[in-house]
Amino acid sequence: MAIVLRAGVALPRRRPALPRPISLAVGLGLFALLLVAAPLLAPHDPNLADILNRLAPPSWTYPLGTDALGRCLLSRLLYGARLTVSAACLVVVVAATIGTVIGLAAGYAGGWLDRLVMRLVEGVSILPALAVSLVIAGTLGLSLASVLVALTAVHWTEYARVVRNMTVVERAKPYVMAAHAIGAPGRTIVFRHLFPNVGGPLLVLGAYSLSWVILAFAGLSFLGLGVEPGTAEWGRMIAEARSHMRSYPRLVLAPGLSIMAFVVAVNLLGDALGDRWRVDQALALTPKKGRSA
């Protein structure tokens, strides 16, 4: 425990408490359940229609009932979760990779490249992201790939801005100057010294932005620009159940509550990662031995 001297009196400095693992466990648990539960828990084929049991109420055979075509609602929810979560994770990974590379290059190089990149980022950021995604997806046509490209095209700017700002701060620190002094190449400085120090906030940003991506993906699918009709996907399921919303509200509530559960899980995961990163930063700044004035 470090010692702080105040008016000649040595007082113990308390180290920051570790965050409770409840949020992290709940977030990871729900996240893993949505990803892997479909083949294990789905009682039926999600695309198998049973016209004789269309719009059937919940029962032992169909735990959440059936939709207008007699397809098992629970099975479609589980398989839709795997598609939706996988697509959202892919968008976040690709957007984070593009934004990180651009942000590192702009923050480290500075000068005209930095100004050019930041003007581009500002120009994209002032536009409504969902509207731009709608235009891009509508131009490219109805397919899953079109939605992924559209969401990635408007999502990379968040990572580029954060990474660029942190790179500018880290670039002025002594360890970077020391690396320059011993003649380390720029690529080594960027990827071996700068990137590890921006990885923590980048991971937290990715966890938080995942919830926005899932909402945007479901919104585009609801508007008819996402996956093909009949595919088990949450936004598409809500769109297909609109005509039965008054008589059979469970057809809309089931995918809607699934989206809410996913967003809650991701936010819990982001909170836990943010607390963990802040604690690590505080512990790194707290001397382990000796005295501080």
UniProtKB/TrEMBL annotation:
Keyword Transcription regulation: no
Gene Ontology biological process terms, A to Z: peptide transport; protein transport; transmembrane transport
Keywords from the named record: Cell membrane, Membrane, Peptide transport, Protein transport, Transmembrane, Transmembrane helix, Transport
Membrane topology: Multi-pass membrane protein
One cellular-component annotation, GO: plasma membrane
InterPro entries, alphabetized: BP-dependent_transpt_permease (IPR050366), MetI-like (IPR000515), MetI-like_sf (IPR035906)
UniProt subcellular location: Cell membrane
TM region positions: 21-40, 60-79, 86-109, 129-154, 175-195, 207-227, 248-269
Similarity remark: Belongs to the binding-protein-dependent transport system permease family.
PANTHER family named among the record's database cross-references: D,D-DIPEPTIDE TRANSPORT SYSTEM PERMEASE PROTEIN DDPC-RELATED, OLIGOPEPTIDE TRANSPORT SYSTEM PERMEASE PROTEIN APPC
Protein name: Peptide/nickel transport system permease protein/nickel transport system permease protein
Source organism of the structure: Amorphus orientalis
Source taxonomy: Bacteria, Pseudomonadati, Pseudomonadota, Alphaproteobacteria, Hyphomicrobiales
